[in-house]
Fold this sequence. Notes:
The structure is a homodimer. By secondary structure, chain A is α/β, with parallel strands linked by helices. Chain A folds into two domains: about 1-120 and about 290-320, Isopropylmalate Dehydrogenase, CATH 3.40.718.10; about 125-290 and about 320-350, Isopropylmalate Dehydrogenase. The first copy, chain A, is built from 15 helices and eleven strands. Chain A has an eleven-stranded mixed sheet with strand order 3-2-1-4-11-10-5-6-9-7-8, sandwiched between helices. The longest helix of chain A has 27 residues, at about 230-255.
Amino acid sequence: MSIVLAIDGMGGDHAPEMIIEGMAKAVMRFPHIRFELFGDEERISPLLGKHESLVAVTHFHPTTEVITSDAKPTAAIRGFKDSSLRRAILSVREGCASGVVSAGNTGAYMALSRLVLGTLPGIDRPAIGGLMPTFNGPKVMLDMGANVEVSAENLIEFAIMGVAFARVVLGIQDPSVGLLNIGTEELKGNPTIKLAHQALKESAFIPNFKGFIEGDSISQGIVDVTVADGFAGNICLKTAEGTGKLMGHFLREGIKRSLLSKLGVLLAKPAFDYLRDKIDPRHYNGAPFLGLQGVAVKSHGGTDGEGFLQAISVALHMIEKNINASISQEILAFSSSNSTEERTKVKFCAL
Amino acid sequence: MSIVLAIDGMGGDHAPEMIIEGMAKAVMRFPHIRFELFGDEERISPLLGKHESLVAVTHFHPTTEVITSDAKPTAAIRGFKDSSLRRAILSVREGCASGVVSAGNTGAYMALSRLVLGTLPGIDRPAIGGLMPTFNGPKVMLDMGANVEVSAENLIEFAIMGVAFARVVLGIQDPSVGLLNIGTEELKGNPTIKLAHQALKESAFIPNFKGFIEGDSISQGIVDVTVADGFAGNICLKTAEGTGKLMGHFLREGIKRSLLSKLGVLLAKPAFDYLRDKIDPRHYNGAPFLGLQGVAVKSHGGTDGEGFLQAISVALHMIEKNINASISQEILAFSSSNSTEERTKVKFCAL
């Protein structure tokens, strides 16, 4: 059975070229994929024409507007009615596609997805998930920046959605979960995170809950899912990116300082290639908006065709494994596992 | 004129050995230094005896208790009356020393310092400062974890203290300041950080205020002082540590995979040594507790004599440049630069 994905052909720094390249790669890898593609006809048609097998599975819709990277979410909601991004999301609501992928403006993408698709029943706030490189392979983290302020219940929802996503992309049956904090002792942290910790510990709803973890534990990969509010999660993600670049910079500076080092690095090229591959952001591309009524995946704006292919494959996995059915089911189970009294108590304690 | 430092001889993983080693190095580098040393006589005396020049400038005080690394701050305050840490801090209050250095339990150290020394007038919350490696050399960041929840006024105080610390340790006359956020646009972030941003921008009190910066900008070194609440700051610091270790791990794994790589790495040793030196945590050791009536510096618990020397030298710089006089003066200037009406307005907006 074929799966239809809606693609925003105009989002990202190197669109539409890298988008078409990624789609062409996807057709080779996933023969059952079909596309609804939205974008500027003049720019996309010549590119599309180069890939016969892609043309065969793509339904192209010309659009007249593009949401720029500096557009505010509110502006994206009010205007840009014929933008490639909005039209792509709409096609999911209309049932023409099972999911959408865009490398465009994150804020606008999230705002439009919430507005057009709506959230899943029982979900208060959708979150942005993502994969991080660790000692033990890629691991899931959320929220990457959608929610700067959260309640304890939001964090619990994130944990449930993170577990569902880890099952889909990592293939782990019973993913372990940690709450990001500034210490592992129960007395550490702010009231919200302490409350979420207590609820997750007492409910045993997430059987593999590991309690608090610290910032350096993420890269150690001691849990499959790291849960944080969007403020800490985003800072964590970007700090890791920045530190990676800094180390590369120091190493290049060091190499420049001696001829022997330059020669050595040539010989050790396989080792550096190995490192580069292990932290290659393209392998970790494809951040899902979790908690929506539909599958929406955000690609990094600066990626290439290979990276966009990865984002497509994340969306495909989420659709094939029916991630939203799992999330709905577990959110329902969570709600009913706590009596109204208990839930009220939790809410009361949070005040 | 000599400067007297109080030293907790028992704090840290490798105490008292690394403490005495660091002190001995300090005597060589800073001939005007004197020590009040606190700790277990049986363990410290034999070590001290090996360094004649150190013995000559050290006043040793035997103590009977040690605050362990897992002791809670409340327990440290109530008990441990004859601990090396408490006695060292007390000696500052009594005027026997101008500052204190310890590699012990951070929470206990901060709690005891606040209790024994008190905060500077006008300072609501002391913060933990620190140095981070960047493309442009070491830069200042605070708070590293003392305050998980802050007000906008706290963040402004942190900015003022960070500027004073950057002047002392980086020797920059007019340090630039950035507020850590999940985007650089003014609409991003939580209400607290937006309010602090607005106040710093409008007051022009910190002339070199650069607005919001993101997690990856810290390692780029685009500002001299990064201001964050203790939750984000601590997660940022530990994520950077973890990412550094992860990259080293991947590189070592890559090297193991081929003989040629091993040979190459031998040739490129100077380049790796350069990298290692650039990110050597010992160079960044010595986290000041800013905002106290007295100088208190925290050394990393796992450091060695070289790292402890660095922490001593941070304390020495803070004393010599009279950092607390600068902080008091600027906090006073800040308070009077805003009329009561304006300050009330700021407070009101924060609600």
